[in-house]
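Handoff note, outgoing to incoming analyst
You'll be picking up this chain. Sequence as last confirmed:
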Amino acid sequence: MSSLNDPAVAACLARLHDAAGRDRARRGELSAHERDDESLTRMGSLYLAVSRAEGRLLYLLARGSGAKYIVEFGASFGVSTTYLAAAARDNGGRLVTTEAHPDKCAATHAVLAEAGLGRVATLLEGDARETLADAEPGIGCVFLDGWKGMYLPMLELLRPKLAEGALVVADNIDHSGARPYADHVRTADEFVSHSLGKIEVSCYTPGS
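Most recent structure output, in case you need it:
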C-alpha cells in the first residue's frame, strides 16, 4: 500500500491543503509589492505550498525512481515534505529536508509527527548552504522549493553528492530568480531536463 493511503498521512495532507487553500485566498488580497515571493518566504508568513497534483507528482517521481536518499530545499510548513517522506518510507529510505524559518521548522516537526513519518525524515534547521554542506553522497532525488535565487548554488553544492541518474525537481521555475538555474540544467551536458508546467525535472547524467 502506498503511504499516501495511510489514514494518518491522508488526514494530515487534507488538513494541510485546506490550510494552504485559505492561505492562497489571503495571499491574493496582498498588494503586488507584498506578494514578492522572496520576501514572504524569508518572513515565513505564508504556506507557498505545492498543490495536491504537484504533491502527487513529487511522490510519483521520488517513489518511481526508487530513491532511498531524498533531499529537500525548503520545507516551509511541511506539505511537500509529507509527500516526499511518504515516498522515502515506501522506498525503504529517508528524507533530509531543510528550513530556515523557526516557525516553519516547528510546524514541519509537528506535521511529520502527525503523519507518522518522523522516523524517516530529518529536518535540518538553518541556512541550507551550511546544513547541507556535509550531505552524504548517494542522493537519489532532490526537490528545490526554497529561495529561488538559491536554486543554482544549491545544485552546485549538492552535485558532487548526486547518484548517477538522480532526479532534481525544481518548483516555480517560471520565477525570475530561478532563471540562472533553468538556463543551466537545460544546457548542461550532465543533465537531461524537461519542464512540466512550472516544475522542471532534470536527470543527472554525468559522463553522457
